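Fill in residues.
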C-alpha cells in the first residue's frame, strides 16, 4: 500500500506540474513562434523648450511573417516561464512588464555581448539649420549616462560610416510631433543588429533645440537603441512624451533587468 500511495502521489505531482506548465503557456496566449528580423519605429520625446510638448505617436512596428516555429524544448519552456516570472516580480520597480504587455511580439530585444566588442556608431556633424557642434557632445553625454547606469553595452562613437552598425542623422524637423526617432533591426532571437537614430534641430513648434534639449532627446532615443520601449509613467524618461530630463530609477532598473534576461521570445 505505501508503494501504491507513493506512486499515486507521484502521479498527482506530475499532473500538477503539467497543469501548471499548460496554465502558464495558455495564459501567455502566444505561440512560441519567434519573430524575424524586424524594424520598429519609435517616437521621441520633445525637448521641453518653453513648455512645448510633442504628442506621443504610438510605436509602430512593421512585422513580417516569421520563420517556422521551432520544436519547443522543455528546458526552453521552463526558461521562458522563469523569465516571465522575473518580469512579473519586478513590476513597479521596472516597467518591462508594461513594455511587453503593449508590444505585439512578446520579444525582448537587446545587444548581446558588446562590451569587449563595442557597437560601432557613426556620429557625424549635421548640415541641418540650427545644427551646433555642441550637439555631438550632448549625444556623447547621453551615451555616457546610460553607461554610467550600468548598461553592459559599449558604443564606439568614433566609427566611420562604412562599417557603422548605428547611424545618427540630423534633420530640421519631423512632419509629425516628435523630435527624435529610432529605427532598429534585430534577428529572430531578439539580438539587436543595427539602428538609425534621427534627431531634429527644431522642435515641433519650430523652436530651435539647444544642446541640453538634444541631450534629453538623445537619452530617450538611446534608451530605444539599447532595447527599451515606452514607460506608462510620466516620471520616467522613457515615457513617450518626456516630462523629465534625466533617467529615473525605473529606467535604470528596467534596462538592467533586460540585460540580465535572455533576448528573444518570452512565450
Ligand atoms: Zn520613444
Amino acid at each position: 500500500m505505501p508503494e501504491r500511495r507513493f506512486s499515486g502521489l507521484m502521479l498527482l505531482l506530475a499532473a500538477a506540474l503539467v497543469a501548471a506548465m499548460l496554465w502558464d503557456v495558455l495564459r501567455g496566449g502566444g505561440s512560441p513562434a519567434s519573430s524575424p528580423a524586424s524594424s520598429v519605429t519609435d517616437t521621441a520625446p520633445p525637448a521641453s523648450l518653453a513648455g512645448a510638448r510633442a504628442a506621443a505617436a504610438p510605436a509602430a512596428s512593421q512585422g513580417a511573417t516569421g520563420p517556422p516555429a521551432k520544436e519547443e524544448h522543455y528546458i526552453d519552456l521552463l526558461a521562458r516561464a522563469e523569465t516571465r516570472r522575473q518580469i512579473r516580480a519586478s513590476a513597479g520597480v521596472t516597467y518591462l512588464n508594461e513594455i511587453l504587455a503593449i508590444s505585439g511580439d512578446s520579444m525582448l530585444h537587446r545587444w548581446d555581448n558588446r562590451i569587449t566588442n563595442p557597437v560601432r556608431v557613426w556620429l557625424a556633424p549635421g548640415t541641418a539649420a540650427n545644427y551646433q557642434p555642441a550637439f555631438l557632445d550632448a549625444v556623447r553625454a547621453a551615451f555616457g549616462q546610460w553607461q554610467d547606469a550600468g548598461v553592459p553595452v559599449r558604443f564606439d562613437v568614433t566609427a566611420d560610416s562604412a562599417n557603422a552598425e548605428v547611424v545618427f542623422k540630423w534633420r530640421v524637423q519631423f512632419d509629425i510631433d516628435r523630435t527624435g526617432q529610432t529605427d532598429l533591426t534585430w534577428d529572430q532571437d531578439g539580438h539587436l543588429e543595427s539602428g538609425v537614430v534621427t534627431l531634429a534641430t527644431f522642435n515641433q513648434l519650430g523652436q530651435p533645440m539647444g544642446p541640453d534639449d538634444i541631450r534629453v532627446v538623445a537619452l530617450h532615443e538611446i534608451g530605444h537603441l539599447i532595447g527599451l520601449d515606452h514607460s506608462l509613467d510620466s516620471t520616467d524618461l522613457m515615457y513617450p512624451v518626456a516630462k523629465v530630463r534625466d533617467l529615473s530609477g525605473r529606467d535604470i532598473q528596467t534596462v538592467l533587468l533586460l540585460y540580465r534576461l535572455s533576448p528573444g521570445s518570452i512565450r
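The radius of gyration is 21 Å.
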